[in-house]
Design a protein that fits this description.
The protein has about 180 residues and is α+β, with helices and mostly antiparallel strands. The chain is about 50% helix and about 25% strand. Strands 1, 2, 3, 4, 5 and 6 form a 6-stranded mixed β-sheet that branches. Strand 3 and strand 4 form a beta hairpin. The longest helix is centred in the first third of the chain and has 52 residues.
Amino acid sequence: MTVSSREKAMAAVTVMALLYGVLLLTLRGRLDAIRLLRAEQIEQRNLLAQREQLIAERGQWEAQYADLQDLMPVFEPDRRVDTYWLGVMDRLAAANELSIVKRQVGSERQVGDVFEMPIDCREWEGSLEAFVGFLYGLQAEGAMLDIRQLFVKPAPNKPAMLRGSFALHCAYLRQEAPPEEAAP
């Protein structure tokens, strides 16, 4: 069997076309990988710029912390604080005629230098004015109190009354324990 020069040229063109196709498919995958790496690099640069901005504002953050630190109550290391926070909550609820039916104190946890104690109020009842007054009282207390979850619904069979639940998180500091003296 003899192969004509025309068939040889067609075979060479076909092989070249296949080689270029494989090269383009390989190149496309690599270009996509390069685009992804560039996008990740840009994202990392933006994240670095944000963190450098925060570091540059350190003095401002420290000044703001120093101002707010006086508002945060400080307790002795061995004092139970749940009774203190429950007393604050009960006092504000009574002053605003809000009825707190069920509540549960969570466990204390430390976040940096600050301690946090959640109080889950599983059921409360009162008017809209009473609840708004209660929330305003929490804000005006000067302590670090934060409502993180809030659920409100109308009370069944009681017009103009509301029911619901909320999670109150109380932030405070603990005094450092005095260093124990070494025995002579």
